[in-house]
UniProtKB/TrEMBL annotation:
Name by which UniProt lists this protein: Uncharacterized protein
Length: 32
C-alpha cells in the first residue's frame, strides 16, 4: 500500500521530463 501511495504522489508531484521518464519506467516495472 505504501509503495502505491508513494507512486501516486510522485506522479502528481513530479512534472519534469526526467522524473516523468523515471516514473514511467517504474510504472512499467510495477505493472510487469
Amino acid at each position: 500500500m505504501r509503495k502505491t501511495e508513494c507512486f501516486c504522489y510522485l506522479l502528481g508531484r513530479n512534472v519534469n521530463r526526467t522524473n516523468k521518464r523515471k516514473i514511467y519506467m517504474q510504472g512499467n516495472l510495477l505493472r510487469g
